[in-house]
Amino acid sequence: MTGEKIRVLVAKPGLDGHDRGAKVICRSLRDAGYEVIYTGLRRTPDEIVNAAVQEDVDVVGLSILSGAHNELFPKIMDLLKEKGADDIAVIAGGIIPDKDIPFLEKIGISKTFLPGSSTQEIADWIKKNVRKRP
Amino acid sequence: MKKNSSSEGSLKQSFNHWKAEKYDKALKKASSKKMEYTTISGKKIKELYTPLDLDGFDYMKQLSFPGEYPYTRGIHPTMYRGRLWTMRQFSGFGTAEDTNKRYKYLLSHGQTGLSVAFHLPTLMGVDSDHPLAQGEIGKCGVAIDSLADMEILFNEIPLDKISTSMTINAPAAVLWAMYIAVAEKQGVSPKVISGTIQNDILKEYIAQKTFIFPPEPSMRLIVDTFEYGSKEVLKWNTISISGYHIREAGSTAVQELAFTLRDGIEYVEWALERGLDVEEFAPRLSFFFNAHNDFFEEVAKFRAARKIWAEVMKERFKAKDPRCWWLRFHTQTSGVSLMAQQPYNNVVRVAIQALAAVLGGSQSLHTNSLDETYALPSEEAVTIALRTQQIIAHESGVINCIDPVGGSYFIEKLTDEMEKDAKEYIRKIDDMGGMVKAIELGFPQREIADSAYLYQKAVEKKEKIIVGVNDYEMEHEPIPTLRIDEAAARQHLARLREVKKTRNNAQVAEKILDLKKAASDKQNLMPYILSCVKAYATLGEIMDSLREVYGEYQEPITY
After folding, report:
1. Could you give all domains of chain B from N- to C-terminal order, each with its CATH number?
2. Of the candidates B204, B250, B340, which has its C-beta nearest A114's C-beta?
3. How many other C-beta atoms lie within 10 A of the C-beta of residue B465?
4. N or C: which end of chain B has fewer CB within 10 A?
């Protein structure tokens, strides 16, 4: 019953090529029973939001290590709203200073996972907080 | 360690007796329930190593003396007694002005070489006014678009006295040309300047992913720099063949070693194919490795690397000049091993890793800063990192004798096994038709992703303990971090606009056209790139003209 599975888009905004974390998370979420779509590297906010809408996902995980999150994440959140897809949960991870987290929460990022988070924590968070979108 | 069958026989008996009667019995009573001991790479380690593990060990063949083939104990006869390693902190952020200031600070505090970190738009060969550069200007490194930025970056830094390493790959030839041009403006001949460009595209496809062109034109550009350097910029390392990023992407120590050396073989083969003389270009090949947490495994990796490379150059490529056999390498401590939790613990991790690099005989070293899981390092954090190297050099006593770990049963056995396992991988990639072919098949990428996944699972099952992360956890206060403010981006963009306005645009267009023509043909592109750079053509303009000729590489999306 693949239709029942929560669909996750793992997306890499920003110019950095650090995909170790994103790839490990993709495999782990797949093993945890989620339907996982990976965007590949260097996706613009437009590309990420289009993929989220087209793939009809329930949650987007943004992985970024370039330091451009404060500029790129608000664009992604605005575009989701514009497309009427702001009921998609958005979570994030990467090299993100603690002091940026309140800002990310304010723009609607549900949860930021810092380095050292386990893939189990992420899978559990999705299980607890994300429901299949109508 | 020479083989002597009767004494070895009795040693074996004694060992077996010790193992059964002493060790195993004592272990049964011990509180530790750990059944298996493995390195961070998952390699099983025995409880004790003895001469029994070095059966057939031949000192002269396997080790010899420092500065003697196969260089297992070091490439120089004097090692750190003759000269300490270069303390070279990788650094760059904000504008060229910001980074110039940081360089002067580091040099005034005892750093002995420079290492440039460029921001991501530069690494990707786009100018700062490109849409993809949004939010990235000066974030991951210093913003460089044209010679005008480079002149400021090295302002008042004497390029005849300081060596500079530049971490730049797909656009390496362009940034190197800018450096040569700045030196000339300082009145310094290209024959005198020294330094390194990373220029290693293979590991970009494999691990770090800042590629632009497909493999074939990328390799051509690299061979162009080999050729140009061996004639015009004699003291320059035209490549730094890098395992660092392969390891950071999740490989094991053996995979790092094997893929890096096989990349090295690939570059030599492509240069020979072009008709270059191995004796001329091979002495300028340099290497770059990771120093990770598993202390002895890392020391063994560095020693095995030297030994394998010497053999490859001497036997496989028949190079005659011993300088071709030397594996000279830079080391950086492991970025991924740093933890956001209880970040001051990172100082200790870095010290252990740096010590492994020094015991491994590194020529140059970067020590990471404690705050790098959060941001680029603050001045205070980078000072501690530099001081860590100075403490190892001047207080620990480890530099007093050469290769102090040589002869340890454990280290020699590990070095030997590391060599065997790496050679097995190298053979496998030879059989695939070389590294470019292996990359096209996705082989090294898959091996690394598998290792990364296995390691993560081992951490989550607590088979591997990370202090402060999956054990010994506690709350910690946030630490101060460096912030790149948006004024840097505005200031930088203003200069880019100014350059485009005040240069001779007709001349730029002409030089770019010349470059494009040469790119479709077979000439060495370096002189053309130099002309473009000197006319203040921007990096983005130069790379765009080459994109039109070569196209762009599309990576298959897998996980």
Report:
1. 83-433+442-460 (3.20.20.240)
2. B340
3. 12
4. N
